[in-house]
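Repro case for the chain-ordering regression, as requested:
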Amino acid sequence: MKKACKGNLPTLIFLFSLLMLWQLGAMKVNAAYILPTPIQILKKLWELRIVLFTVHLPATMLVTLVGLLISLVLGLGLAVLMDASPFFRKAVYPIVVASQTIPTTAIAPLFVLWFGYGIWSKVLVTVLITFFPITITVYDGLQSAKVEMAELLLTYGATKWDIFFKIKVPCTLPYFFSAIKMAIPMSIIGAAIGEWLGAQSGLGYFSRRMMTQLDGAGVFAPIVLLSAVAMLAVAIVALLEKKVVRWRGEF
Amino acid sequence: MSILSFDNVSYQYPSEDFDIIDRLSLSVEPGSFHCIIGISGCGKSTIFRMTNGLLQPKTGNICVNGNPITGQNHYCGYMPQKDMLFPWKTIGENLALPLEIQRKYSKAEQRELIDAALADVGLDGCRDKRPDELSGGMRQRAAFARTMLTGSDLLLLDEPFSALDFLTRISMQEWLLDQWQRHKKTILFITHDVEEAVFLSSSVLVVEETPIHSLREIPVPMKYPRTRQDLTRPEIVELREQLVDMLRKQVVV
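-- result from build under test --
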């Protein structure tokens, strides 16, 4: 613990200086409705804690989780199929890339028209933003498996499944964790954007409502909460990764 | 009966317009130790890759123990140039690979076989180590133990010692001869090191030209067990020079 603190000292000092600057700057500007101070934001967070934590955080987390889960299934599925079949890769890869050129935020209001104010319009935004990095990263992981290793197992009489589970999966595991760590913040952002555009609950929705009330601190408070949740989730995954991935790097 | 035979075997790489192996016939006696030598890119590895089934010959038949290799499994143990130990597995788990794939042994039997194989190559106590904790020579011995665990009588070793430093390499050569004599396996060994070929093999198979139409068999007049002193005998020195000359003629600078 002591060591971790020491290692993070530069970060903490820098962060603290930035917050101080913000605090001083915001106090000078003195217009809390557009630029609240960090202390005002924290106060707001405390005042709104019950509604934020019991109503809006769970709503956003539900969208995030469902979106992340669908993205994982979709991303892993596409990656495995692209790895297994060159034909499928040629057919799908350009479309996967093209899907990322869609300005999701611009067409997201349409999703609300299609799917209504329920969670599915937000889930779609989340999936559109999240599945791409998962697909590409996991595909790279599958491709990183050495041909020579597969050949060696083939001379032992290995089946395609042997090669998949004994070589492809272990080679892809580090990539998979990188993908998850990327996908978590992106899916949270996706959920918040979706809610911002049209919802009945959720941190994104709440932030927007505060905007219309010109409550600067109220806009920031849910966003601070979102960042904190994202960082916590990534930290948990990183911890899990340390336990599961025994090897990462070059052959 | 020969353990391995090629009958008019040809192979052509899709990217090339000629047969790199051209109607090659050869036969290998059980229990022999042959080194195949030839210059880089001459096609000697192609012979191995057809024998272990990674490449399909264009024409001709390859038989092991008198039966065609198509339809046979686990008939040869192949050890590639790099040790190919999986870095995320322990040495024990690496050795388990051929056993797991054969699906013939229980976990307990696997463990027993692995322990015996490790003891045999002098790596007792390395079962739970990771490959990167082992030296180059130890890694090659582990890879050899894994090849032995395929249970095949025919071993194809493709330049296994070429990445080792000189001193490690010569001790590994002596070690390999000892293993060969104790286990009575048939070994085909690819190398481009003439001295290694002479020291190891009962007869050297020389690739004289590409496309490979035949391998020229040159017996080595030395009895086993051999020591490195034997390499200084005049007839052996002469043989070495003769082999170097044969190969140098083919090298285009």
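Ordering looks correct now. The interface with chain A takes residues 52-54, 73-74, 76-78, 80, 82, 84, 86-89, 97-98, 100-102, 130, 150 of chain B (CB under 8 Å).
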